């Protein structure tokens, strides 16, 4: 019996795949469908959910909603974001449901805890590669749990030694 491929997914993959119209949504949706079809084991850090919620909130806010398709802005009433809590509740519930639906398409997923032992390694990646703390933590978590494949929409992961990095972007 062959072992399943284990792939660590950065938050950007989940954001793109679960929020239609967001950056790289077509490519990330196709990539996730391929991983699901291959029955790959998906690994991600618990921090992903918080990054996902933060970006989902920001995308709907007045300063960023122009990045979403006009039909989505209209369908969710996002122009009333500041004035109507029901709009915010509906949007956040929808993006939550989208994420859970995405996760449930995978045969196996592992939500890796943040380990204290990953802290020094995170600092090393911040210093050596100029990464932000969450990005460095994703790499440290993947390494700590022995996952050699990482997928992201962010190109700054490309030159991380010891990781097979797949950059997933719309053309």
Q: What overall geometry do the principal axes of the alpha carbons give?
A: globular
Q: Share of helix among residues? A: 40-55%
Low-confidence blocks of residues: none
The DSSP helix count reads 7
Radius of gyration: 17 Å
Portion of residues in beta strands equals 5-15%
The CATH topology corresponds to: Rossmann fold
CATH architecture heading? 3-Layer(aba) Sandwich
Trace the largest sheet across and list its strands. 3-2-1-4-5
In CATH, the homologous superfamily goes by the name: 5'-nuclease
| Number of DSSP E strands | 5
Average predicted confidence as pLDDT: 94
Q: Can you offer a commentary on this structure?
A:
This protein has 171 residues and is an alpha/beta fold. The protein has one domain (6-167): 5'-nuclease (Rossmann fold, 3-Layer(aba) Sandwich). Helices cover 50% and strands 13% of the residues. The protein has helices at residues 11-18, 25-37, 47-60, 70-75, 85-104, 118-129, 133-144; strands spanning 6-9, 41-45, 108-112, 149-152, 164-167. Helix 6 crosses helix 7 (133-144). The protein starts with 5 loop residues before the first strand and ends with a strand.
